[in-house]
């Protein structure tokens, strides 16, 4: 009984450590479905809101785009410029920190392109063996 209690407490401690881990928090931010689509949409310079909405693609609402952009901006990954024009407009671009992260994400994308078929074959073989 004491061993079970200690194991439970140790598991709870590990869960707290994972939640507090900067890597976990960063991955939760940048690995979201929409963030992963926003980074490449901004990699060639500033983009206005409506163009960004088109580039990110089907399925994202204006509300979700705005929410994701605010979160990325709050973490220093994108920059928002508000132009005092008539009508006023806003542009978004990657910050230097966001550009650095985007290069890393491009490496991940390259890895996936290289290994996706292998992963598909393994998954299909496991399904066939069940």
From TrEMBL:
GO terms for biological process: regulation of DNA-templated transcription. It comes from the Bacteria. Transmembrane segments: none annotated. It holds the Pfam family HxlR. This is PadR family transcriptional regulator. Gene3D superfamilies: Winged helix-like DNA-binding domain superfamily/Winged helix DNA-binding domain. InterPro entries: ArsR-like_HTH, HTH_HxlR, WH-like_DNA-bd_sf, WH_DNA-bd_sf. SUPFAM superfamilies: Winged helix' DNA-binding domain.
